[in-house]
Amino acid sequence: MFLKNLYINFKKYSFLLQQLVSRDFKVKYKRSVLGIIWSLLYPILNMAVMALVFSNIFKFSTPGVNYLVYVLSGLIMFNYFSEASNLAMGSVVANFPLINKIYIPKYIFPLSKCLFVGINFLLTLIPLYVVIFATGTGVNIYHLVLPYAYICLFVFTLGMGLILSTVSVFLRDIFYIYGIVLTLWTYLTPIMYDISIISSKLQIILKCNPMYHYINFIRRIILYHEMPSGFTFAICGLSALIVLAIGLFVFKKKQDKFIYYV
Q1: What's the rounded Cα separation, in Å, for the pair 120 and 113?
Q2: Can you spell out the DSSP letters for 239-258?
Q3: Upper half-sphere CA count for residue 93 (Cβ side, 13 Å)
Q4: What is the spatial distance between Cα 95 and Cα 88, in angstroms, rounded to a whole number?
Q5: pLDDT digits (tens, 9 = 90+) for 27-76
Q6: For the chain, which has fewer Cβ within 10 Å, the N-terminal or C-terminal residue?
Q7: Mean per-residue pLDDT of the chain
Q8: Max CA pair span of the chain
Q9: How many CB atoms lie under 10 A from the CB of residue 201?
Q10: DSSP code of 53?
Q11: What Cα–Cα distance (Å) separates residue 141 from each residue in 60, 86, 177, 221?
C-alpha cells in the first residue's frame, strides 16, 4: 500500500520534481564562466592531482591495468555518493519554508538532490571514456551491464539520503559528524589504492563496505574486461535495496514530526 501511494505521489508531483532539479542546476552554475563544463573538468583535474600524489609520492600502482583509469573509475562513483548524500541530508531542512505553506511529499526533496547529482554523474562518464580510449584501455561488450551498477549506486545513495535527511531534522550536529564519516569512508574505499596491498583481515572489513562492491563491479568490466561474478551482482543489488528499505521506513515513520522541529 505504501509503495502504491509512493508511486501515485511520484506521478502527481513529477513536475515539481523537475522544477527542483532544474533550480539546482541554475543555482549551481549561476555566474560560472565555464558553467556545466566544470562537470567534465572537475573529475579529470581531481584525478590528475590524486594520480600525481599517490603514484609519484606514495608509489601506489595497479599492476596490469592503467592507474589513471583505476583512479577515475573509483573517483566518479564515490564523488556521486558523497555529493548526493550530502545534499540530500540538508534537503528537508532547507525546504522547511515550503513545507510549512503547502502539502508536498517530503521525500521529493532528497530524491531531487540524488537525481540532480545523477545528471552530473552521467556527464562525468564522458571524461571517463575519454581517458579509457586515450590510455588504450578500450571497451568491451560487458560495458552494456554497467548501468546495473549505476542504478544500484543511485538506490543505495537515495536510501542513505532518506536516512540522513531524517536525522538532520532532529539532530543538526549530523552535518558536522557526516563530514568526518565521509572522510573516513573515503579512505576505507579503495579509490586510490589496490585492496591487495593491505592485510587479509583488513580486506574483510573493507569488503563490508557497499561502495567497494559498486566500484569493484565497474572496474571488473572497464579494467579487466570480464563479467562481474554472480556474488557481486547479488551484493550490489541487495545492499542497495536493504538501505533503501531502511531509508523509506525511517523517513515514513518520522516525517509527520518534522513540522515540530522547524
Answers
A1: 11
A2: HHHHHHHHHHHHHHHHGGGG
A3: 19
A4: 11
A5: 766 665 556 666 666 666 666 666 666 655 555 567 778 888 898 899 89
A6: N
A7: 85
A8: 58
A9: 7
A10: I
A11: 29, 34, 42, 9
List b or e across 128-137, with b for residues whose CB sees 16 or more CB atoms inside 10 angstroms: beebbeeeeb
Cell of 158: 537515495
The answer to whether 74 and 216 are in contact (CB under 8 A) is no
Hey, what's the cell of 125? Answer: 562518464
Contact of 86 with 220, CB cutoff 8 Å: no
- Determine the straight-line distance between the first and last CA of the chain, rounded to whole angstroms: 29
C-beta of residue 123 within 8 angstroms of C-beta of residue 40: yes
Measured at the CA of 89, the angle between CA 86 and CA 94, to 5 degrees, comes to: 110
Q: Count CB neighbours of 54 within 10 A.
A: 17
pTM of the model: 0.89
What is the CB neighbour count within 10 angstroms for residue 20? Answer: 21
* Measured distance CA(70)–CA(54) in Å, rounded: 12
Axis crossing angle, helix 2-12 with helix 14-28, rounded to the nearest 10? 60
CA–CA distance, 112 with 81 (Å, rounded to integer):
14
Per-domain residue ranges of the chain: 32-261
Query: Residue length, the chain?
Result: 262
Return the C-alpha cell found at 168.
538532520
Cell numbers found for residue 183? 572522510
